[in-house]
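Appendix B, example 12.
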Amino acid sequence: MELTSSFADLLRHISPVFTAPTYQTFVAIVAGWILSQRHRFITEVIFSSGNVGNGHWSQFHRFFSHAAWDIDTFSLFLAKLVMTILAPGALLLWAVDDTLCRKRGLTLYGAGMHYDPLISSRSKALVRWGHDWVVLCLIIINPLWGPTKGER
């Protein structure tokens, strides 16, 4: 698997987030994810990126659980990359959303009681057990892409 030079240069902007071995695994995972024609499971990513005989398969699985990188730092680098390369001078808006994922069980890690707007009414607020996923989105409004898109 060999990446095009422009895509490899794009990925190099994010390289300070990772250590050298972790960065190599990251590049292989991203390339395999893009080249995969079926499901984007980690084992499929290994096959699609051509890394079947290169090391043990667990290095790809451990990238997400044990590797030396921080997802918050990665997100900031990615946001800066998007803002400087893809949309210089564009209007940036932030959108925040939270979604309750109802789960039950004694061994469920990180779950708690959260407000559930689907079963609550104006008179009675109800809570459910589960995870509350909070998503922060960066909305880019660039007049060159579509003058009426994103305006309200």
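The chain has a mean pLDDT of 82. Residues 87-141 form one domain.
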